[in-house]
Amino acid sequence: MTTKNVSVNTANLSTKQLMKEKKSTASFKNVFEKIVPTILFLFAAVSVLTTIAILYTLITEAVHFFQRVSLTEFFTSTNLKPLSQNPSFGLLPLLSGTLLSTMIAMVVAGPIGLMAAIYLSEYASDRVRKLLKPMLELLAGIPTIVYGFFAFTFVTPLLRSIWPEIELTNILSPGLVMGIMIIPMVASLSEDAMTSVPNTMREGAYGLGATKLETAIKVVIPAAISGIVASFVLAISRAIGETMIVTIASGSTKNFSFDVTESMQTMTAYIVEVSSGDAAAGTTVYYSIYAVALTLFTMTFLMNLLAKKIARRFREEY
Amino acid sequence: MQYIDRLQVRKRINFRLRLNSILKYVFLGATLSGLVVLAILLIRTVSQGFAWIDWNFITGHLSMDPEKAGIMGAILGTFWLMLVVIFFTLILGMGAAIYLELYAKKGRVHSLIQTNIANLAGVPSIVYGILGLTVFVRLMDFGSTVLAGGLTLSLLILPIVIVSSQEALRAVPQTLGEASYGLGASKWQTIRNIDLPTALPSILTGSILALSRAIGETAPLVVLGIPALLIPFPGGFMDRFTALPMQIYYWTLDAALVEEYANLAAASIIILLLMLFILNSIAIYIRNKFQHRF
């Protein structure tokens, strides 16, 4: 019955009108269908815009800095006295702090992460792995400020009770804690690389009488080496950019030194100190954080690129 | 003549086997060492801060006096931040993921955006802080407000949200979309009615995990000049605010002056970790309850 009514109703309208109506809704629909991808493209373009904005702000403001401070002074001077009467802006003290804390972190995270990866991929049963891996990844989910608090209020006093020469703020303690934080990164990326080594290669080794250990070290690790190295490089990049742990636990002494017991400032901690201080916009001190940040950005960017290259170039396809 | 010295062979084999079984436990120990540190960290923080958590601490205003200090302002600030971050990252992240997965032709532009997102994920958070300081705080003149902080954190986690949303959309089987096209649906209708609802649980899981990364971030907020002062509770997007990590940061620094501040920092850490725990639980719940498997 209803269909009849409808057909009667439509019959009252002229066919022309109907077609017109249909056309107009269709064209609206068409326009809508065409607009949506454009809008979504703009959303996706935000990420490109972010990169451009980062590069633009860092470079233009760093240019202001380098108009006042020469490149040679910035990269070769071992003096960093931004607030003194006769200020000097040498990057090397910050670089030594960053490199030292990164090295300490990698001394911890490298071996432990790799050993954990070997255990998880070669020794652990499925059940144990499924239990341990998420627990290990909890370490990466703890906010860095919490690690900073831990380094400052627990690890440093602990180190001082063993080794009294260590200063109240020092580079050793945040380095160690940073290492702990990075373990899951090294472990899970290396483990991924090792599990992707095909079982036939392991079986070949077992068939020749190799133990699990020998298989892991002489067969699996060489086969997965590109992934493992890439995970190390990514971890280094992460450690270079890490901020809060070193800001809290390593103090703000700007010495060019490699003594782990001393207080030392990293590039990231310098940015925090200056930007949370009273440096007015337009002063050389203010612009210096852009120069430091540009250096930091370049370093981490190159590291990430390197990691990707290594992972791609040396990957053996099985 | 004997070519093989049996005793020597046995010795050698025993040594290799023993080395294998010893190192197995060394490797296990290495795996557990991180967890041991995590346990120490948690136990110590809880034992130091738990006694300081009471109703007044959670609902009270900030105060110089450690006995009276409360962190309601910081908790509210963190909630306001979350609102801004959720809004921007969900819209931008989902939109970008839909574009990259379902609309974009796999060509130069696509791979440019994709590489760019991968690179952004590796940029240190403090650099985002500097970007936020320059663009949002100074150039757009938002000041150290909720909006400036939220936008900065949004940009920080956007790459993570995009990548996880892309993975979620990729996991939707093509057959579903084809059925929809077969019924005469347009592309956008198919995306809106098929792809998005199917992928939504995974998208939300990924976004909530990214959100929990954002609210623990401190470095960008420090650079933006977020204070931990006696300021009124934030009530809008253009209000000045403080957030939990900032509060922890300042109390840890000031512990050199007033010892009890360290305990307050520990107590705030417990609250922050609790919030992260709740967020992660929600994410896991959504994943287990709603995620489709094909």
From TrEMBL, chain A:
Signal peptide per UniProt: none
Say if the entry is tagged with keyword tRNA-binding: no
Can you tell which superkingdom this protein's organism belongs to?
Answer: Bacteria
Q: Which residues cross the membrane?
A: 39-59, 91-117, 138-159, 171-189, 219-240, 285-307
Keywords of this entry: Cell membrane, Membrane, Phosphate transport, Transmembrane, Transmembrane helix, Transport
Topology of the protein relative to the lipid bilayer: Multi-pass membrane protein
Domain ABC transmembrane type-1: where? 95-307
One Pfam match? BPD_transp_1
Location comes to:
Cell membrane; Membrane
Q: Which family does it belong to?
A: Belongs to the binding-protein-dependent transport system permease family. CysTW subfamily.
Give the protein's function: Part of the binding-protein-dependent transport system for phosphate; probably responsible for the translocation of the substrate across the membrane.
UniProt cross-references to PANTHER family, sorted A to Z: PHOSPHATE TRANSPORT SYSTEM PERMEASE (PTHR42727:SF1), PHOSPHATE TRANSPORT SYSTEM PERMEASE PROTEIN (PTHR42727)
Record protein name field: Phosphate transport system permease protein
| Organism from which the protein derives | Allobacillus halotolerans
Ranked from the top, the taxonomy reads:
Bacteria, Bacillati, Bacillota, Bacilli, Bacillales
The gene coding this protein: pstC
From TrEMBL, chain B:
- The superkingdom listed in its UniProt entry is Bacteria
* Domain ABC transmembrane type-1 stretches: 75-283
State its location(s): Cell membrane
Transmembrane residue ranges: 21-43, 71-104, 116-136, 142-163, 221-241, 261-286
Recite the UniProt keywords alphabetically. Cell membrane, Membrane, Transmembrane, Transmembrane helix, Transport
Tell me how this protein sits in the membrane. Answer: Multi-pass membrane protein
Protein name as annotated: Phosphate transport system permease protein PstA
